[in-house]
Design a protein that fits this description.
This protein has a domain of 257 residues: Rossmann fold, CATH 3.40.50.1100. It is 40% helix and 16% strand. It contains 18 helices and 15 strands. A 7-stranded mixed beta sheet has the order 1-4-5-15-10-11-14, with helices on both faces. The chain has a 4-stranded parallel beta sheet with strand order 8-7-6-9, with helices on both faces. A two-stranded antiparallel ribbon has the order 2-3. The mean pLDDT is 94.
Length: 453
């Protein structure tokens, strides 16, 4: 019988996170202060984040130690298994070996606790009492709710309204862990009230929810904002995924030809890929692919530009691929991928051609996800379906070329709480939506006068 799982003992779990900034061939453009246009200083971020996380955000150290209290919580589900998708390989009938890092084993069912737990920990030791955040599909909101409960913090989550309505069980998870979940846009903040005054039926967006969460946190000395993707320290924490995968593949003497992940803000994709990007920088031949939705094609159709991370323009200007900070995406079911911008690190890697981006519409992603569930058993999250569609495409290419390939991807979360999305697909009510070019051009008018990277 062929080996299905590669396991690490808890003693083999990485004790440090990996920081890609130490190995970049060309430096990234800095975030800019929106008032002065100059590079942001650490103290400018102090009202939003605790200084211990700000230090990680700006650090160029290659390795950053994981605190023992964080490792103790990680041991609830880490190290996560590296699995071989033998049944899916048989279904595809292509000359590929498919390995996936199963991040659906965490208590909330996704990769998000990898950064939620350290963020809660660092805020706790800094003396913070409450965290405010946003969430799209609810994966991040539920992960932070759990982490806050573990470290004795209050938690307030602004959830994109369309996902709040589509995914009631996510907000029930948050409530079970003691968090307050508010549909966004809301009447709780001035940013939310302004949106509702102009667009009473707004479905919301991650940009709007970020604005509300930042406003809710800033000004309260006992509160801070917490972000589940995009920023450097978030991607740093997620590298434990790729570091474990690296060790597991070494155990069986296999190295991937292709490394893949779905990409919305960039955290799970960066988590699996950055240790392998390091290898590529140092001469290893490996293709690295980010899969995004065609309804929110940030990397594949947006420009590389300076833009705000939120709709109300309260964040620094970030150098990233973007569709414009006031972009409101279509109400697709992959709520975790509905963000107007992409992590500056991931954006930089795409711009430098170290990473390739591909876009997929929701019919092909759900088709891939259902085929996965009917062969491998596990039901993937709608976001994860995008990378499974990319795996299918890569396998078909290998078949056409008659070339054997080893594919590694991040199975970023399970879809057990996302079953209404599968119901919509199976009943035929989903459509293969692709964002019209005129909508992209309209959204980009909002950044026309911003500094150029």
């Amino acid at each position: 019988m062929e080996q299905c799982k590669v396991l690490l003992d808890e003693s083999e779990m990485p004790r440090q996170w990996y920081n890609i900034l130490a190995d970049l061939p060309t430096p990234m453009k800095p975030p800019l202060h929106p008032g002065t246009g100059k590079p942001i200083a650490p103290e400018d971020l102090a009202p939003v984040f605790p200084m211990n996380l700000i230090e990680q955000e700006v650090s160029a150290e290659r390795w950053i130690d994981i605190p023992e209290p964080v490792l103790e919580k990680y041991c609830l589900w880490r190290p996560s298994p590296l699995c071989r998708a033998l049944q899916f390989e048989k279904l595809l009938d292509a000359p590929v070996k498919i390995y996936y890092k199963n991040e659906g084993n965490s208590p909330p069912g996704s990769h998000k606790p990898n950064t939620a737990i350290p963020q809660a920990y660092y805020n706790k030791v800094f003396g913070i009492k409450r965290l405010s955040t946003e969430t799209g599909a609810g994966q991040w909101g539920s992960a932070l709710s759990m982490a806050c409960q573990m470290f004795g913090l209050d938690c307030r989550v602004f959830m994109v309204r369309v996902s709040y309505e589509q995914k009631p069980y996510r907000r029930m998870m948050m409530a079970t862990w003691g968090a307050e979940c508010i549909p966004s846009p809301s009447n709780v903040t001035s940013a939310g009230r302004k949106i509702l005054a102009d667009f009473p039926d707004s479905p919301g967006s991650l940009g709007i929810a970020i604005s509300e969460a930042i406003e809710d946190a800033v000004g309260n000395p006992e509160a801070r904002y917490s972000l589940g993707s995009v920023l450097n320290h978030v991607l740093l924490h997620q590298t434990i995924i790729g570091l474990e995968a690296h060790k597991q593949m070494e155990k069986i003497g296999v190295y991937p030809d292709v490394v893949m992940g779905c990409a919305g803000g960039g955290s799970n994709f960066a988590g699996i890929s950055l240790p392998f990007v390091r290898d590529k920088i140092h001469g290893k031949e490996v293709s690295i692919v980010a899969a995004e939705p065609s309804s929110c094609p940030t990397l594949t159709r947006g420009p590389f530009a300076y833009d705000f991370g939120d709709t109300a323009m309260t964040t620094p200007l970030l150098p990233m691929y973007t569709l414009g900070h006031d972009f409101v995406p279509a109400s697709i079911h992959a709520g975790g991928l509905r963000y107007h911008g992409m992590a500056p690190i991931v954006s930089h890697l795409v711009k430098e051609q170290l990473v390739e981006a591909r876009a997929y519409h929701q019919i092909e992603t759900f088709t891939a996800g259902v085929n996965w569930a009917r062969s491998e058993g596990f039901i993937p999250a709608p976001e994860t379906n995008h990378v499974i569609a990319a795996v299918v495409q890569e396998a078909m290419r290998a078949k056409e070329e008659g070339k054997e390939k080893v594919i590694l991807f991040n199975w970023s979360g399970n879809g057990v709480i996302d079953l209404p999305a599968y119901d919509a697909f199976l009943s035929g009510s989903l459509t293969p939506y692709e964002l019209p070019e005129e909508e992209i051009q309209r959204a980009l008018k909002s950044i026309a006068n911003f500094p150029k990277p």
